[in-house]
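Continuing the batch. This is chain 6 of the set; chains 1 through 5 are on the previous pages. Same settings as before, nothing changed between runs. Recording input and output for traceability.
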Amino acid sequence: MTPALSVRAARKTFGGLVAVNDVSFDVRQGELLGLIGPNGSGKTTMLNLISGALKPTSGAILLEGETISGLAAHHIARKGIARTFQLVKILPSLDAAQNVTAGAVFGHRRLWGDDARALAHTLLDRVGLADRAHMPVSSMTYIDQKRVELARALASDPRVLLLDEWLAGLNPSELKIGISLIDELRHEGRTIIMVEHVMDAIRTLCDRCVVMSSGVRIAEGGVAETLSDPEVVRAYLGDDDDA
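Output for chain 6:
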């Protein structure tokens, strides 16, 4: 079966800095892949390459066998890539329902009018914001803004959903709800790439992990075996000899 997403020797340089260094991996249809690694390892840059926020210096990214690398971000969104951001990006002059409606109108499965508005209200209910559909997002808490952003991403009915530290900043009760929500999406058969530092979420949700460090893929495989890999442990904790 053709992978949902293929990254082939993706490289991104910023002047003399190599942020992503010839990284390759596949994401299977319906898989939840954890993209993990210490801070500064290139994870968000990789999501930016996949979503079109950045263009790769070299290499290729394919969505169900079709090359998408190099396309503008809005074209990639319409082909079926949706994402949330490490720092929430919302439309501050609109209310929650209008933000989510925008995802339905401009995303992969394009809906209009009453259909788009009805989907927006359904998704806001799903993320726990049914009673705040018409609240200006600029008046919302950061956590609720993150929920709006997830609902907006889902409104496009994406072929691949990218979650960039969506669980970051949640308190314990919110974290439990957030993990449950992502688990529901996984069981719907959605293909998800999740950048996350919450290891409980990685262990609970992910089918496999790809680990990056200093822009390089250093490990890939099942969650338990990958997290126990000595090179992965060193990447997170450093060597005792480094002190």
